[in-house]
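Job type: complex structure
Entries:
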Amino acid sequence: MSSERAAAAAAKILRYRGVTKRYGDFAALNGVDLDVHAGEVVCLIGPSGSGKSTLLRCTNALEAIDGGEIEFEGSALPREEAALRAVRRRMGMVFQSFELFPHLTALENVAEGPRTVLRAVREEAQRRAHAMLAKVGLSDKSASYPSALSGGQQQRVAIARALAMEPDVMLFDEPTSALDPETIGEVLSVMKALADEGMTMVVVTHEMSFARRVGDWVAVFDAGRIVEQGPPKQIFEAPTTERTRDFLSHLGWPA
Amino acid sequence: MDFDLSVIADHWRFLGYGVGVTIVLAAASGAASLALGLGIALARMFGPRWLRVPLVFYIDSMRAVPVLVVLVWTFFALPMLTGLTMPPFAAALIGLSVHLAAYAAEIVRAGVESVRPGQTRASLALGMSRAQILRRIVLPQAIVRMLPAFGSLLSVTIKDTAIASVIAVPELMRQSETLAGQSFQPIEVYSFAMLVYFLLLFPVTRGVDRLYRRVAHLGRS
Amino acid sequence: MTFDWSVVADHRAALVAATGTTILLTIATMAIAVPCGIVVAAVRLYAWPPLRAIAAAYVELFRNLPLILVVYWAFYVLPIATGLGLSPFATGLAALALNVTAYNAETFRAGLGSIRRGQLEAAMALGMSRRQALRRVILPQAVRRILPVLASTWVSLFKDTSLVSVIAVGELAYVAMQIRAQTFRVLEMLTAMAVIYWLLGYPQAKLVDWIQRRYAVTE
């Protein structure tokens, strides 16, 4: 992993500089600096409300930032809607609440992006959808509606839906927080397999063992800024800041 | 078009009487339909099997027939069958209560069914009787869920009292009709009636909207 | 007291025609009130704030008035307001349409608003435009929520057509009561009127139940 990382080190997929975001009086993001390189898995950890999800949602412009800049593949995020849509096509997002479209089957959900956004023909969209569902291990559920699927299965379909767009980066917003413990594992394996293939990923998570094993870089958030960032070995075994130590000990880490 | 409100001022007692009758009729039929509806719902859910079919038939029939028809039939046709004459107010009270009780029964049924079955099971495990469970565990939870729907029903009740004008009950609608006919100023009189009804109903529908929002997060326990 | 039920059979042609008028009134009202309701709901959700306030006021007004009063008021005000001599049918239709449009607007607005924000976000995260998201994701779900309520409104409307009888529109209630007045067969005609409404209304109520079961939304 580290040799691949060195080779691709020059390619920055995402670059955040001094990003700020306010909701009224509340500063959700207070100056965030972070780089995400090609093929890297960056994990954002920290207490609830510290700004991790907000940063993710600003990345694909679901929310607008108030200050600083976000660069994607070398250019600043555009302001104009049509250009933003083009950017969003190259990013995949997976939500905590899955957000599958309930009126469509699993196959139709995964095919929806290629059909409507990429204007693929129905056969081509379905072919891609079948391939993505197979990739996440749910070929047998392609004709099922979301209400018939477990949480873990729904989330895997959601990952397939994002992958069908062939994105350059995958954004995961607490993908396993709404899942039963039994199904968390199946989703994390899919994510690990993706990481092993070299997908660039930004993951907001509370699953510390995932961040430790799969992450290449970990950023610890607190009150809207990153208090410490570095390789997992450093963050989890030899944290340099008080806040990080406090946060980890509150989680009972190491278990 | 000149708008002469003096007709309202001159006859405020006459119209005020109508408002009073409206309120009394609404309150009385509201209370009666509530009691009747509760009884019907409980009889349907927990009573003898053979009662269920006629009760469901009654409920569905009241949903099928207009209030106007029920009131007119109660006032004009029922006396021919029973041989008793009925004053308009009584006919309206009976007609409205019987009609609205069907809706009240459905609200009670939905409310009780929305309480998780686990609640009943847990109470049974504690050794409570069915009657105790209903009274102390299920109904109190169900009532909260029923409140918004009952608020809506109250709103409907007040509006339906206006239909009683057709059988000459001297509520506000009827009084307005009479005054409009006598004074030849229908626009002023009916506009005033609209204002009064709006002032009566607006707080109720507002309150219902608020209740629906509060209750929305409850779902199934 | 003797009852002569043949009076119902004697006047069956008139009753059938009157029933037709009732059905026509229901269909015509919905044909107006559905598109108008969509427009009002759209104004309430998306238009310039002063227009939104007017739309909201319109909806609040008609939710809080008895329909029978609206019918009377329309009868006296509409000729003066529009300068046209409107037939009782047209007046009745106008009053019903004004009323049902308000209820429909509320139904459409609530239906659209009940779709979780996350659905819109997931659609946009895929790169869809707002319009695409509305058409492919939001509206299909909203329709499922709206249809049962609309069905219920239809049945209420069907019953409410009886109220335009007070301004002498020739629908079922009016015609039945006219025949009663002419023949003095009170019990027979009023019972026949109730039975006819029941025969039409009961299946409609059952249909609404079926629609509500079929489109029950499970989150």
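Summary: The interface with chain C takes residues 1, 60-61, 63-70, 72-73, 76-77, 80-81, 155, 158-163, 165-166, 173, 176-177, 180, 186-187, 190-191, 193-194, 197-198, 201-202, 205 of chain B (CB under 8 Å). Residues 19 and 64 of chain B are 29 Å apart (CA to CA).
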